[in-house]
């Protein structure tokens, strides 16, 4: 009997599997495959394994698949991809996504000027379709299908189970250990446990050391009537739009903003390089508010603002951390756990690559088993990622070849001086037509250096030289609508934290070094903490001991949204909360 059977799991349990320890205690269960995490990577791996008849158990720590997950989020089906979400899950677009997105713009902003570029060409390139999604709805829909198909193999999907490590025998990985269940052995372990993969770390395949390897994403889901969306964005009921923002609206922090239309809401957020965020001691929620209250957004929000949810998560930068060899023994990493999230200029693609990798991991295991040696699955998976072109998208050779020069300080200083000079302005005017083409060029986007020059200076200068004044509503329009002035008033941090749902368990993060030097960066970088704010996770104070003054940091994980930021920027022992505990996103 399998764990899933032993746990008495039937169809109704998929959303709320009450795993009874007594049912499974005392024996180490075995499955052909265990998949950890039911995001797009895990769902794709599990579906592809089950379709090939592999006995598969999926373990998800959330109360429901998607309850821990955040993305912008546009999910792509690339023409060149070996696996797509609708290929593995027929009916996905009709039942699990929000709106097709067929318009794609980039707004370069400088003060009250904007230069808008049409990025349809880069958006459409290699794109079969692209939909906006909300993760709770999407992932829980996928999980129901995964549960149905994996049950037919003798497995199933269990929620509220946190895998806390790898089971080893004579140094070899042979399974997983969990907070809520006895250890489980498997011939294949797929770690699809996301950006803060404890399994990748346990296997020595992921470092959490360098803020330069990560982005931090923060997002608000904003309520808006479908007819109002159609009207204000000029889209039909079966259409949608994506708007990206860069320039001087984020206090010089490297990164940008996004706005995507959902069925009856908007997803508005920011994605910043974590090293830039910490270096400038910027507060993520304030940068998000800077976007929400910007006059450019007034054309769509028009003074209406009802925030459904505030959320945040780290995102790996595949250019730097996509693991070229994402496996160790029976363990295969897919999706964010393998660093497979592509962010190059205006291109943000993670979910589609997680799906492709999940499908390839399953295919590799089945191929290896058919050849009589399942232990070769990892090598085959690595080869398939390369031969199917996935690795080249994640870690473009162009970026690696040009990085040393393009990210050199002297080159960036020279570039900034040139573009900010009258000569640079004349050049931009002379080649105005080329600007849009450059932003639509996959060749150039694959080389975008991670510098302030490319993320802040160039867009700002484009707006200054080529832009026109932002046309917001007038004071009179706002006053006629009963507002003091045009613009919206997002909730403050305390209200945002108060509106989230938590089932607080034991503290899951331990502060190892409380000195401000070691852990102070978390006070501002944590998306639910802020300088001089008493209600968040991280606080700092100056204490006097033995006549000496010391600045120290303290941590309270109660309002933690499990974004992972402090694992990278502070000295912590970082773990996810136990199954079913911690924050629960309703939108994601
Ligand atoms: C603000 C923001 C905007 C983004 N925008 C986009 C976008 O527009 N398009 C796009 O394609 N991508 C976008 N991304 C990235 C995208 O969300 C990820 O690349 C994608 O979710 C990765 O999928 P995954 O399956 O690897 O991991 P995840 O979706 O993170 O899923 C991991 C799953 O594993 C579970 N889990 C974790 N640890 C354990 C454990 N120990 N035991 C059991 N279960 C566990 C989690 O609960 C979760 O369900 C964005 C991300 C952010 C934060
Ligand atoms: S305590 Fe750490 S993991 Fe939790 S929200 Fe803050 S930075 Fe993110």
UniProtKB/TrEMBL annotation:
GO molecular function, one term: monooxygenase activity
Domain FAD-binding: 31-205
Organism field: Halorubrum trueperi
Superkingdom assignment: Archaea
Lineage, opening ranks: Archaea, Methanobacteriati, Methanobacteriota, Stenosarchaea group, Halobacteria
Name under which the protein is recorded: FAD-dependent monooxygenase
InterPro entries the UniProt entry points to: FAD-bd, FAD/NAD-bd_sf, FixC-like
Known cofactor(s): FAD
SUPFAM superfamilies assigned to the protein according to its UniProt record, in alphabetical order: FAD-linked reductases, C-terminal domain, FAD/NAD(P)-binding domain
Matches recorded under Pfam families: FAD_binding_3
PANTHER family listed in its UniProt record: ELECTRON TRANSFER FLAVOPROTEIN-QUINONE OXIDOREDUCTASE YDIS-RELATED
Keywords from the UniProt entry: FAD, Flavoprotein, Monooxygenase, Oxidoreductase
């Amino acid at each position: 009997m399998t764990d899933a059977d032993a746990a008495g799991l039937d169809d109704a349990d998929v959303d709320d599997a009450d795993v009874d320890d007594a049912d499974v205690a005392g024996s180490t269960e075995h499955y052909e495959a265990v998949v950890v995490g039911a995001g797009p990577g895990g769902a794709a791996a599990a579906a592809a394994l089950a379709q090939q008849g592999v006995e598969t158990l999926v373990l998800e720590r959330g109360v429901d698949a998607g309850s821990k997950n955040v993305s912008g989020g546009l999910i792509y089906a690339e023409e060149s991809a070996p696996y797509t979400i609708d290929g593995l899950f027929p009916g996905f677009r009709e039942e699990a996504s929000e709106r097709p997105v067929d318009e794609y713009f980039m707004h370069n902003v400088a003060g009250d000027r904007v230069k808008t570029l049409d990025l349809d060409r880069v958006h459409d390139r290699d794109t079969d379709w692209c939909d906006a999604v909300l993760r709770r709805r999407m992932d829980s829909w996928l999980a129901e299908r995964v549960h149905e198909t994996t049950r037919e193999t003798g497995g199933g999907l269990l929620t509220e189970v946190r895998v806390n490590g790898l089971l080893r025998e004579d140094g070899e990985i042979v399974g997983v250990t969990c907070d809520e269940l006895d250890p489980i052995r498997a011939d294949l372990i797929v770690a699809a446990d996301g950006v803060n993969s404890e399994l990748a770390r346990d296997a020595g395949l992921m470092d959490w050391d360098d803020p330069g390897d990560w982005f931090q994403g923060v997002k608000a889901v904003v309520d808006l009537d479908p007819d109002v969306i159609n009207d204000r964005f000029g889209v039909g009921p079966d259409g949608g739009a994506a708007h990206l923002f860069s320039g001087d609206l984020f206090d010089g922090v490297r990164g940008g903003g996004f706005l995507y239309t959902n069925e009856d809401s908007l997803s508005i957020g920011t994605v910043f390089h974590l090293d830039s965020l910490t270096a400038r001691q910027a507060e993520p929620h304030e940068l998000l508010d800077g976007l929400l209250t910007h006059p450019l957004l007034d054309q769509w929000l028009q003074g209406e603002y009802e925030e459904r949810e505030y959320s945040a998560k780290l995102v790996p930068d595949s250019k730097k951390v996509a693991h070229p060899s994402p496996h160790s023994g029976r363990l295969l990493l897919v999706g964010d756990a393998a660093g497979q999230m592509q962010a190059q200029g205006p291109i943000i693609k993670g979910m589609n690559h997680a799906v492709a990798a999940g499908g390839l991991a399953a295919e590799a295991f089945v191929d290896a088993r058919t050849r009589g040696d399942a232990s070769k699955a990892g090598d085959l998976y690595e080869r398939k990622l390369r031969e199917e072109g996935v690795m080249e998208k994640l870690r473009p050779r162009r970026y690696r070849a040009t990085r040393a020069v393009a990210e050199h300080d002297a080159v960036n200083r020279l570039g900034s001086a040139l573009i900010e000079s009258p000569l640079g302005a004349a050049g931009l005017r002379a080649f105005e037509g080329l600007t849009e083409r450059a932003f639509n060029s996959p060749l150039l986007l694959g080389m975008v250096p991670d510098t302030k020059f490319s993320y802040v200076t160039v867009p700002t200068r484009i707006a200054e030289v080529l832009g026109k004044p932002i046309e917001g509503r007038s004071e009179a329009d706002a006053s006629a609508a009963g507002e003091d002035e045009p613009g919206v008033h997002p909730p403050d941090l305390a209200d945002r934290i108060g509106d989230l749902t938590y089932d607080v368990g034991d503290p899951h993060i331990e502060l190892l070094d409380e000195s401000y030097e070691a852990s102070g960066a978390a006070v501002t970088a944590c998306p639910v903490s802020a300088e001089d704010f008493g209600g968040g996770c991280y606080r700092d104070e100056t204490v006097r001991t033995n006549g000496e003054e010391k600045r120290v940091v303290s941590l309270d994980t109660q309002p933690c949204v499990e974004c992972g930021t402090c694992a990278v920027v502070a000295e912590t022992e970082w773990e996810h909360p136990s199954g079913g505990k911690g924050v629960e996103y309703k939108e994601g």
